[in-house]
Amino acid sequence: MTDYAKKRFLVIDDQPQARDALRTVAQTLGAFAVEFASNYQDAIYRIRNITPDIILCDYMLGEGRSGQQLLEELRRFKMLQDESIFMMVTGEQSYEQVVSAVELVPDDYIIKPFSPDKLLLRLERIVAKKNFFADYYQQKRKEEFSLAIALLEQKRNSEGGRPYRFEILRQQAEVLLASGDSNAAEVAYRDILESHDFPWARAGVARALHKQNRLTEAREEIDRAISGTPHFFDAADLKATICMAQGEHAEAQKVLDEVAKKTPRNYMRKRLLAEAATLNGDVETARTAMAEVIAGDTMPGAVSAEDRLALARSHVNANDKISGERVLVSMRESEVQNMNLAEQASFAALMAICSPEKGKPRFTGLRPALLATELGITARLDVMRAALSVADNELADLHTEHLMAGPEAKKTFGSIRSQYALYGREKDFREIQKQVALKRIRHEEVAPAASAENGIESS
Amino acid sequence: MHRLLDILASGIHDTKNQLFSAESLVAASEAKQRVDLSEVRYAIESAANRLSRTLAAYQLMRHGAQLAIVPVIVPDLCAEVALAQKHHLANSGITLTIDCQALDDWPLDRDLVTDMLNNAVQNAGRVARREIRLSAIEQGNELVLRVEDDGPGFSTIPPAGGTGLIVAEKLAELHVRQHRHGSLKLSNGGALGGACFELRLP
Predict the structure, then answer these.
(1) Which of A96, A305, A414, B60 has an alpha carbon 20 to 30 Å from B162's alpha carbon atom?
(2) Under CATH, which number does the domain B70-201 receive?
(3) CATH says A1-134 is which class?
């Protein structure tokens, strides 16, 4: 049996009485070091300082936060290693519905009331599972994906792997997706669905299809995963992302609006909402959402230069250049220097739009780099827009051409068209569109298998 | 429409939290005073289970239930029922034996199925003479879970006044896999000569 006296416990609960009860149970197991966290923020702070071996976390944390949200944030920010134990504690039967649907799950959950013996039984089980997967966790952390997959394959065929068949399949699918092999990941998730229609596996299929840019199919799968699982908030995020890629920005915003209301303090989701609202032309929602992210996301280091740029961009979209400039000016020069090229491009472009006299020199100074470098779509859109505003048509058209030829053409189509319309250049935009389409046809004659869904219906 | 359900659920949630405080205090005194108060804890947990079961039944009858299916390791499921019941039964001179031949994980609603088995073992405990057996075996593409006892068996099948049974039957049927449904069967003349509770899950 595990020696719990040597394990570091962290009990997270906003109710003092419940915290005491959990501590008592842990101490009955022989636990010596039991720390407390009374809220979300405190929990993050403690876990960042010293990762506990065993976390007992209540599902309801108060202040619009849940233990599930904490778990998701810890996993996403890689603050919780696979070796640590995360046990959700709940008096609610409804948490079972969450666990059965979502992709990010705790090691186990336990329903109150329970005896120390029952907790012990559950913990011993988790320890056994973690021992079984120990070598795999190491390779996964090192991102040695092919080794990790080989280990899983070996475990799958072993006698000791019999109790973990589903867990092995699930890990295989996740690693394949993380390694970038979305075709194999799709097959792996479909294998799981053959056995049972788990919402998380269906969402996995949708994720893999999205990566393959098979958007219509991805959308069908995610709609199926969501139907009947109102607790599966991450699936709503994925659906919104797929909708945006399809150019259905109003639907993306609607989906996110609904879920964001239920999870008011999930700031990843709020960022996504801001993105969808921006694409949807709902400038005020985007502005409010980004302002809330910057004011409310207290996760250390979570508010990035990119977030501040997004806030400035939302002001620009709302035609409030003064507020936009204020945000940009508040960024220190050292911070700007530390940005990557795409962020520097966005910074210079947004500044040139907000305040031509302050921003134009920097923007013009970057021009050679902007002509020569590959940029992400957000930066390209900013540069295109600034270039149009300073009448640098060559630069604007270059980035537009890249955007229209890229896999995210549907997502950006509406934004680009409205910018060209603003400067009376609709005709030029249609001409670029035509050239891109002609190039694609010529390209597909050579390689007919190329991405079928990238085309834009001209409207 | 869902308001009444929300009120009930939140009341039950709070009650279970309080029961948890009570149970942890009992456990703490057991450790400190070196006494066995497991019957007190058993009563607390039974009360909490009854509350959950009542809520689940209400939800099923009123709104239709949705299962929460997760892969469950079958020997672990059996071990958990044993942990909950064995000690209590031993106090009345009844041995609970576990015969688990299903070694894999199986997709099922863990808490519902655990509760159904606990309930079946409890019921058997009222009539059993010396022994109750919980067994699990994979047959074809079904998982078969049985609770058998050495008591006199059911006087009528189905037993009279079994609203709990109707709920349990419905919950078994809600387990669906590739168009195959779960089922629940009560019979006499089990392996120990008495009643047999049999839950089949696809």
Answers:
(1) A96
(2) 3.30.565.10
(3) alpha beta
